[in-house]
């Protein structure tokens, strides 16, 4: 991190546009969830392909985040930031004008690509713009709050646009966001001299990591249509193992690795990344099932669907700020993360009881409240520990790994749980078909089979979230963050703690 003796006088104005860009990226992760049933009906997207509307964005974003961070270091953060904004706006326009499944999926993947340029460059710009400790904490606090609220804004806007305008506006809304942020960035953001990293780009690492992750998620998706033992499915899984294995070998040998292995080799950080990845598998899958359950089975309007998730967002913020943040310096991280993920798993287990006539107040709301409080409590110590104790030169990549584990976990979760749910639906129909002899009976069977598939998918998500709690308790063995701070200060040189709130969501 360069030492700038005179702070940039326009840094607080710059924060406005950096935060606006972050809001757009976070908002986009949830806004399309609400619009997905309408888009599926309008464009004729098959049930097997619908998860790719979410997965294409999550995989491109998560798979290329490390690459985006390195590009920002090499090419310049301001230039990368503005390029990311323009590209994101163009990809959003393409999505809003989509006339078929392929065009929509391509736009989502492109949004992910440019989001992967945008997110790391935004964080880097904050880091080099705010060098004084108190100002830095305040700036990152504002940035983190906006990132946290983005999910709730996305759910509400998704409902409003889908109900009163059209699902296409969930894409078009990004264009004014990006235009304002790009114009502001060009006018007021100043990147200090000498802040670029002159090392070479790890091209083999980029190629191996991206192809490996694509093979992994596509393998889960093909399993749904071709079966788990089909030749293509097995070939994709084998390719993923080989490519990601080769990535690890390459990263251990190249001079300037995309992902320095020392970042993930630490037991605590590795445990945090693993637990967050597993938790994301469960959470992303659950969102997919609940959105379709509330709209398709319960008949909720898109805006009511968005409002239904707000209590979970509220308890997530409460768990994060009132439980996680307050206890973080008093209780070892694993005793917040483990019980937190377990509480969320209990909330998810509650939701396995949904049926065609389940009441929102008694059957859904308690589960959402438990999930929110649990995830919020686990989240704060996980974010802190994920970047604690790393050297200053690795703080950015450690932060990027948090988002990468969440995004890739989400992509795998959406594909895997959708596959398991569709298989359960087919099995249910096959075993109950004999009794359905009239048109009405066949229709009822279809509804029951769909609800059963949601129950099975959520049950798997519950198990995965329980595994996340187990990983946190077993692998994360650090003491209280404040106690460890003194011991780790020499490596991080203060940069680490500054990075903590950055990759919050």
UniProtKB/TrEMBL annotation:
The chain crosses the membrane at residues 12-32, 52-69, 81-103, 109-128, 140-161, 167-189, 201-221, 227-250, 271-294, 306-323, 335-354, 360-383, 457-476. It is a multi-pass membrane protein. InterPro entries: EmrB-like, MFS, MFS_dom, MFS_trans_sf, Sugar_transporter_CS. PANTHER family: BLR6921 PROTEIN, MAJOR FACILITATOR SUPERFAMILY MULTIDRUG TRANSPORTER MFSC. Pfam families: MFS_1. It comes from the Bacteria. GO terms for biological process: response to antibiotic. GO terms for molecular function: transmembrane transporter activity. It is found in: Cell membrane. One of its GO terms (cellular component) is plasma membrane. Keywords: Antibiotic resistance, Cell membrane, Membrane, Transmembrane, Transmembrane helix, Transport. Its main location: membrane. Residues 14-481 form the Major facilitator superfamily (MFS) profile domain. This is MFS transporter. The keyword Cytoplasm does not apply.
